[in-house]
Model the fold of this input.
Amino acid sequence: MENAVAGVVRCLGASLKNRGLYPATHPLVRTPVEKCRMELAPFFADRSELALTVSDGTLVLEGVPIFQLTSSLELFMARLGAVGLPAVIFERGVSVEDIEMFVRFLHETKEQGLPIPEIKARLARWGVTHIRVTATDEEEKDDFTLAREIYGNALNVVVRALKDVRNGKTPDGAESDRAVREMSGMVSRNRDAMLALTLIKNFDEYTYNHSVNVSVLSLAVAETLGLPETERIGVGVAGLLHDVGKTQLALDLIRKPGTLTVEEFEEIKKHPVEGFNILGKMTHIQESMRSVVLEHHMRFDRTGYPRPEPEYRMNPHSQVIAVADCYDALTTMRSYQKARTPQQALEIMRKLAGKSLDPDLVELVERSLGVYPVGTMVRLSTMEVGVVTGTPDGGKGEPKVAIVFDRSGNQLAAPQGVDLKEADTSSGKPRRTILGTVNPLMHPPVSMSGVLQAVWG
Ligand SMILES: [Fe+2]
Ligand SMILES: [Fe+2]
Done:
């Protein structure tokens, strides 16, 4: 046992060390990963997972401490510690690719002490499915941390679902259902925490984050609409899987920047029907969710695709996905498009209201996100610049703001949360009011998650 355990860890260490010395495709990087996968296999004969932890400076695999440290093992342990990973769990079914990406993650991550949900989200984006990371000491979590975990988990589910479809397998509908229920719970508990995550955009894996964002936004709209729970979950699941049909298209077509040719657009137009077919094979999918996926590009004025017959009756929830889809696409930077601020996105959407988008829903989105949605950069009457970190009472209350730049435009060492209701002692009037939004491009980039974590953490 000891030998086998040491073998697994030695391979991980060797691959990590060699990654720093050779290109990723070099046999000295790749071979130890393959060897690690082989060394792991016998363990899974009688267990479904294997835990690797660092406790008191000792590397422990399945309870077996490894005392004979080689230089590569020391490096491996140091990287785990620096990134902030107390425990790694290998699941049965772990692939060479999973291990390879995990080693790459350890190699490329330069930040120290990342929060576990962030690590989870990154690994999910890279498609690591059978290596789990956990904190050994689960402390009380704040809403933001909780929301990040829930978001990360949903991201995992989407990655897995899309991967399954690409490999000709039918995704597990129960997983999507579970992930959406968690998100729906969090939207009810702290909508701002969940919505804030939709603004933390990731540019390399657009489809995954986009799917989760559309689900979160649809859930927020569904809640404002007062839909009963089953319908809310249905809308959320449809949001999560609305673009699943894109798995049937060529990858370079989905990723193609800029305008598409007529033929290419004809290809893209197939994805709602493909999605409808895929959902038909999955368990835990209501018939109405399938229709919503089929109809998400039909448009309010019925000019979209697939073009509906005159007598065809659309499911009204399809328009919820359509507004969420539009909002997320507009606020995301793509290779051919700069990201709009939430305000700019809403302005564009107001122009589309009554045409491609349902006007009532556009209004509702504005109402559910608030005049200044979370993440909006605003100028205050003091000439300070801040970021909206909360919109109490579903957007009706005074927004919460964290100041990031002082009146001279200098960035504060740490974001400072301020209360807009706080009165000026001499005049009795509010000390700070919001003058309006500012263009984030006029300022040095601000890490939205950093601001929110500092204020909420
Ligand atoms: Fe779509
Ligand atoms: Fe979409």
